[in-house]
Amino acid sequence: MDRRYFLCLVGASGFGFPALVGCRGHQVGQVMTDDKKDLVGNTAAGAETYKPLIDDALGKLLGRQYAGVQPAAVPAPAVKRICFVGVENKSSEELGDFKEQITEIIDTRINTSQVFAQISRKYTEAGLREARMRPDELFLPANQRKFLAIMEAQGQPFDYLLFATVTSGTTRGHNQTQKDYLLTLELVDIQTGTPDKESASLRKGYYKSHKPW
């Protein structure tokens, strides 16, 4: 048995509740270098879940688009501009501050691809406000045309709309739960209306343990 845990139990039985309070641990912080693995959340998804999902889904999606516009022995085409309209959470968990993280990571991956460029979020948000639309309303072609006209007037034309959706599925067992997380990215060609969709999934187990008292 852990010595500290044992002393806490002894103190609690000999001196009552105050002694038990005195055995509380102290929270400390540690800077994690790049060679350290991300922490695994014990109640919800975190960096260990969302980062691999983004890398997998976005890498496949952009790679497929690049292959489609890059024939062999032909000079590289002009950079295509993507308007990413945000993340829709349809999972059973709150994304919290990870919603902004997901958006920023996707923005960065697009802008470092050297094939695609991301429209600034500030312009995108301003355009949506002027159009008085929610991101999910942009699936309608008429709304897409209206939004594109507004963005062009701001000097921010684009070639694609990008939508991201997070979903989850839950399987419950004895003292354990499995969560299946799915990130779906849908890229819509604004000129043709042709969509291209890619998903990435990750399974995660949560387990309950009981300490004897």
Feature tags:
single chain, 213 residues, alpha/beta, Rossmann fold, five-stranded mixed β-sheet, 6 helices, 25% strand, elongated
* CATH architecture identity: 3-Layer(aba) Sandwich
How many discrete structural domains?
1
Please report which band the strand proportion falls in: under 5%, 5-15%, 15-25%, 25-35%, 35-45% or over 45%: 25-35%
CATH fold assignment: Rossmann fold
Please compute the radius of gyration using only Cα atoms.
Answer: 24 Å
CATH superfamily: ABC-type transport auxiliary lipoprotein component
| Overall pLDDT score | 79
Structural class: alpha/beta
Number of helices: 6
Distance between the termini: 11 Å
Description:
- The protein has 213 residues and is of the alpha/beta class.
- The chain has one domain (47-71, 78-206): Rossmann fold (3-Layer(aba) Sandwich).
- It is 37% helix and 25% strand.
- It contains six helices and five strands; from the N terminus they run αααβαβααβββ.
- A five-stranded mixed β-sheet has the order 2-1-3-4-5.
- Helix 3 runs parallel beside helix 4 (98-111) and helix 5 (121-131) packs across helix 6.
- The radius of gyration is 24 Å and the shape is elongated.
- Residues 5-20 have low confidence and may be disordered.
Quick synopsis:
The chain is an alpha/beta fold and 213 residues long. The protein is 37% helix and 25% strand. The radius of gyration is 24 Å and the shape is elongated.
